[in-house]
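SEVERITY: medium
COMPONENT: batch folding queue
REPORTER: lab tech (J.R.)

DESCRIPTION
The queue accepted two submissions in a row. Attaching both inputs and their returned structure tokens so the on-call engineer can compare them side by side.

ATTACHMENT 1
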Amino acid sequence: FQVKSENKKTIWNTEEVPEGSEFDDTWDPREKPEYEIFFKQQVGTEDVFFGMTGKDPSTACCEDIVIKIKLPETKYSDITLDIQDKVLDLRTPKKKLLLHLPYPVNSKEGRARFLSDKETLEVTLRVSRKFDFINSS
């Protein structure tokens, strides 16, 4: 097995390195926060009552991923959040979360809000998938 490269000094091609591997840091002592992943659909009466669009309750028909991350004793200003197409990277002084997302997302269109009373960061990301007869909008 031989890898051809434009530069003779490189030992691997950039295509061989999975997205998000630059964030993996096994030596970082910060603990991983608790988190939950939810999937969200936009449905109307034609979906609920008549089943006209063919949507079902599976994650394949969801438009958004909502990630709720518990960050006790954290201020909003201490949170660093980086979203890529398949990776969420969150860092605070005490916590670190590297999360490989279950579906590719549109990293440019997302929302994050910090609920200080619940000490929770809520991140909503739009799933990026090809259009088909179910996912047409």
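ATTACHMENT 2
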Amino acid sequence: NSRGTSSLLKDTIPLTEFSASGPFEGHDLLRRGFTSVKNELMPSHPLELSEKNFQLNQDKTNFDTLRNIQGIHAPLKLQMEFRAVKQVQRLPFLHSSNIALDTLRGNAECIGFEDILNDPSQSEVMGEPHMMMEYKLGLL
């Protein structure tokens, strides 16, 4: 009788193939957050895309100016510093202020909209701290 059940198990599909993928997958709120239709829509105004990429465009202009004035080494050094500073973060469930990045860009003493009303995209992420840390480290 045990041979009969083993032959039946051999013909079954492994459980790994039942993982959530494709059009019928379940949405993981812990890792991906709430779904929003607004994120999938096109920009409603032509300037909206420009405003979203304002800091990127400003950095590019500053790097071009710096390259013309001081040579290729200056923007490359600054880009390496930006990259190193962006990697320093707090734990995934805590808000990171990125004060070092603001200092490198020269925005440390400027008061902006996100300082007063807080940018919703940088708000504190609520969740299970242990699960979020394990996911960030690749243990899950």
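NOTES FROM REPORTER
Residues 51-117+126-137 form one domain.
No errors were logged for either attachment.
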